[in-house]
Every structure is written in structure tokens, then in C-alpha cells.
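A.,

Following up on our hallway conversation. C-alpha cells first:
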């Protein structure tokens, strides 16, 4: 299936070596999906069906719906979907047929799908990351404005303390509208700081209700990891026991070296760095 916000294009590959056939395009609505499942089961007389679609902005709603209907579904990684070099034709119909063919041949790589609790916690931690990025952006804009007008805070002193805020609010400019700009930037920084603090408090409140809370307590025992860091880590990884070995976990995180060699040319890359 090639999924979009409004539509789903469906291709079907029957067992064997026959060419996949294009089924239809349906609206991306639970009622339409239910009718499609019912229709295909009637056609194939109750045979087991395997569904798949690429991970994307539509999330896992379709996956959970199909699983609730008793269907087997895979969400596959777009970055690992085989593509023919030089293929310049891309349509929803063509993509649906390609996915159907590759699913039958076993060439697709499924991704781990979080359950509803895990997905909710991941959204919560990612929201804090978004707010933190907004705070950093607001601080950068304020610093740039002040520096652009010949004012700067001493480099050997800590920023964003009460003393720093007092200094910022004491700045005066020749034109009154520059005072307006300064105050708006200061208010923006304070507002984003409050948003980060609020959602951090909310994370601490819901932590005891999370099934992975005991694992968070264990990770906090490691040097350099606080509760927020542990929650973010586990929200992204989920149940760590799903990895068969530490090596597999490190590969998932991108912390293993890579190699690109051809003939007499050998190139070894250092470990990738996971952003903080």
C-alpha cells in the first residue's frame, strides 16, 4: 500500500511469480479500509493476507487498525526499500505495485512499531525537544540582536541568570522601537523557558505510570544520565530486550564503524555520533 494523508493506493501480489495487479485507490478512512479488507478476504476465500506500507508522516494508525482486524501488517523502512537506479517514473500506482512485489519476495525491512503507550511517551519527549529547540532559537535571536547593536555580555560570565536578564532589561537604545524589539525578544525567551519547564514537570508526573519507569530508575544509576535523558532514550528505543545483543543495539544507534571498499580502495569510517 502506498499511503498518503487522503488516499491509499493498493497493489496485490498473489503467491507465485505472476505480476502484481493494481487493486484500487481508496480514501484513507477506517471505514474504507475495513471494506477493502472484507472485499479481499471474500475474493481469496479467507486466505491469510500480508499487508505492508512505508513508514511516513501518517504514523501507525493504519497498522493498528489492520492489527485490530486480525490482519498481519508490516511497516517498512523507506530508506531500505530497494530502488532501481535511473528509474525516473514515480506514481502512487507504481509504488503500490513495487511494494507488493517486494513484500512477496521478502526484500523489505520492517521497522519496530511502538504500542500506544510507547508512542504517546515518545510524542511527549519529542515535544519537549521541540520546545527546547524553540528556546535555543529564541536565545540565539536575542543574542544576535544585542550584538548587532554593539552590546555584548562578558564571555567569562554565565548567561541566562537573573543578573544576565537584569542586564538585558537595562539596555537602552536611541530609537524607541528598538526597545520594543528588545522586550519582545526577552519575552520570547522567557516564554519558551516556561514551556520547557512546564512540560518537564509533566514528564516527571507521568513517569511513575509508564511501564518502563523501573528501567528509567536503573539508567539513572549510570554516570551522566538523569531522568529526562533516560526517558528520552527509552522513549526512542522502547523495550531494550527486543535487541538480541549489545552489538545490535549499537548498530541501531549508529555507533558502529562503517566500511566502503572497492578493489584496492579501502575506506573505514569512524563511529557515527548520536545527537544529544
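Then the amino acids I'd put at each of the 276 positions:
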Amino acid at each position: 500500500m502506498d499511503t498518503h494523508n487522503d488516499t491509499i493506493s493498493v497493489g496485490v501480489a498473489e503467491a507465485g511469480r505472476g505480476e502484481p495487479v493494481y487493486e484500487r485507490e481508496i480514501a484513507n478512512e477506517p471505514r474504507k479500509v475495513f471494506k477493502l479488507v472484507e472485499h479481499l478476504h471474500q475474493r481469496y476465500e479467507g486466505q491469510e493476507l500480508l499487508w505492508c506500507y512505508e513508514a511516513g508522516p501518517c504514523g501507525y494508525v493504519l497498522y493498528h487498525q489492520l492489527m485490530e482486524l486480525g490482519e498481519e501488517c508490516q511497516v517498512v523502512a523507506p530508506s531500505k526499500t530497494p530502488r532501481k537506479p535511473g528509474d525516473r517514473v514515480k506514481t502512487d500506482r507504481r509504488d503500490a505495485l513495487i511494494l507488493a512485489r517486494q513484500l512477496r519476495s521478502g526484500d523489505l525491512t520492517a521497522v519496530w512499531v511502538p504500542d500506544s503507550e510507547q508512542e504517546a511517551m515518545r510524542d511527549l519527549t519529542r515535544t519537549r525537544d521541540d520546545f527546547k529547540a524553540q528556546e535555543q532559537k529564541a536565545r540565539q535571536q536575542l543574542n544576535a540582536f544585542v550584538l548587532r547593536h554593539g552590546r555584548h555580555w562578558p564571555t567569562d560570565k554565565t548567561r541566562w541568570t537573573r543578573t544576565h536578564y537584569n542586564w538585558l532589561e537595562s539596555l537602552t537604545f536611541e530609537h524607541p522601537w528598538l526597545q520594543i524589539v528588545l522586550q519582545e525578544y526577552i519575552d520570547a525567551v522567557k516564554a519558551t523557558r516556561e514551556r520547557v519547564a512546564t512540560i518537564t514537570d509533566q514528564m516527571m508526573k507521568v513517569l511513575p505510570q509508564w511501564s518502563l519507569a523501573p528501567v528509567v530508575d536503573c539508567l539513572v544509576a549510570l554516570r551522566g544520565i538523569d531522568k529526562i535523558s533516560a526517558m528520552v532514550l527509552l522513549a526512542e528505543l522502547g523495550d531494550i530486550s527486543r535487541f538480541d545483543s549489545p552489538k545490535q543495539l549499537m548498530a541501531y544507534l549508529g555507533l558502529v564503524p562503517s566500511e566502503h571498499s572497492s578493489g584496492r580502495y579501502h575506506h573505514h569510517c569512524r563511529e557515527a555520533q548520536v545527537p544529544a
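The chain has nine helices and seven strands. Curious whether your intuition agrees with the design.

B.
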